[in-house]
Sequence to fold (667 residues):
Amino acid sequence: DPTLIHENANKDSNVYSTQRDLLAGAVSKAAAFNMLPPAVSNAHMKGDIHFHDADYSPFTAQSNCSLPNFWDMLANGFTLGNAPMASPKSIAIAATQITQIMKDVASSQYGGQTANRADEHLARYAKKDYEKFLEEARETIPDGMPVEFARRQVESAKKNEPAKLHFGSREPLPMDTPFHTDVDELEQEREILAKIRTRKAIYDAMQTMEYQINSNRVSNGQTPFVTVGFGLGTDWFSREIQRAILLNRIRGLGKEHHTAIFPKLVFTVKHGVNADPGDPNYDLKQLALESATKRMYPDVVFYENIVKITGSFKAPMGCRSFLQGWINPETGKDEEDGRMNLGVVTVNVPRIAIESHGDKARFWKLFDERMEVAHQALQFRIMRCKEATPVNAPTLFRFGAFGRLGANDNVDALFKNERATVSLGYIGLAETTAVFYGKNWIRDHGWDPEGKEFALSIVKRMNELCKQWSKSEGYHYSVYSTPAESLTDRFNRMDREKFGRIEGVTDHDFYTNSFHYPVWLQPTPMEKLNYEKDFPYYASGGFINYCEYPCLQDNPKALEAVWDYAYNIGIGYLGTNTPIDHCFVCGFQGDFEPTEEGFKCPECGNSNPDKCNVTKRTCGYLGSPVQRPMVHGRHEEIAHRVKHMSGETGRVTLDDGTTREWFEEAK
Fold:
């Protein structure tokens, strides 16, 4: 069944572990719909709602996505399997331990996980390397050595510093400076030498993380869905960690320099840190822009806007789910790490509109009825998660990822008082609005203000309901802009079968994700963001904005202009979609063409997964659709995407040395 094996583009259905997971998932789903309240099970089967991840929950009491507290685990030690782990004494060991924790967390939950503010937290372990190298430098540069001899030794070390630690063919980094200028000259030279050696240790550790995450497979047959949030640290160690993360991503994996799918990188932009020329980390913003034009990652979060939208700053859990600001009543401090989401239920909003036959009063009546069924489903999710025991997932509950409970403690201590979130999802606001305002309510360069206000009123109403439920029950219900990797196909297909093809509503093989501008229209990036900017403030439990660009490797300033504009108008979280496919047969680089079932090189027609690297934005994360095909509706959605700027979309150097280029003109 293609809809089953292609449901998750991160799963390779050819391998045994994935096949076993798919088979177990089918059994779990069958059991799940006998466990759920009848109204919930019936609504899911009919396509009124979607009870997500039924191949794991409620058959098991697993939770969804999270911000594991890696930093408490590294600082205070933990046990993994049969091995007690002490706090690491180097960044290399810290990186290895984190990837081991990630693998175990991924086997204990079904959603994504994020290393939040990784650069700032890992800096302490890089500093341990520096202290070790400084002691070694005191041996190689002993007291009494002539300063000129010491300086030549340091200059030699700098000269021999591997080029990978710099910027390829561009100017290398300047000579390092000591941390202290109030010490004698020999000690200053030792500090410089220790910094040079520490830089390599940091780079190697970040490379270890990149390769280990991408080479891991967990019990459910997929690569751990991992996100790394970074960008705020301004000390030397944090800056070098940021640089190493970005340089490793730009260079790619293996001899063919494949684009790494994981970890998803999320770079934080903040005024006074890196947003503007003169900020201490502005150079790292430039490196992040280069990486985004070449590898699509990092996505960016804008610090102040995330605080306004969600109540405090944090990176997303996985691709787009956000925790809400929460003050720990025991400490009186904001707490993000160690928290989680308990699950998602998504409502088929276009179906409500279709069934209302253009009558808004009927729409809102049906809407409230469906929301109450979704509420029952979410209540069941909470109840089922509370039935877990600490021994079910020791890494999560006993050894620090979520908390440090005793073997017989109640896991609800980590969920209640709105510490955990649970998500009410939605899909297809563009199609829903078309039922009432016609298919042309939103166009290439504009929209009907009444139509947008109606779409916004839907999310506002969901937000009101979530606040009511949270207040009465003590668990944080939040509105979630569902990524709908396969749901975009399922809901649309079921509605076409039930209602036929309705112009502007079911006439594509997919529904538009959440509040997004329809992908087949061509607004400018600024127009698209202006339309979408208001929705996340009512859907703070999960959101992301995207723009579609031509090739920008030679024009990163164009991307920076969009980033800065988005920051200024209140966008919280922005992704970059740009052509980065590569054919290893003819050398083409750019946008592969969609075919009925996949993608092919526009120059030579190559679609052999062993001879190309095709990277597309699946939904919140990247995917390799030639290697791991996706469900039909998502493939159609990607095929319908158009660029929001004119420009080159690919090029190839021919045998005679000339260059052939492809262009797409925006309207």
Observations:
- The chain has a mean pLDDT of 94.
- The chain has 20 helices and 24 strands.
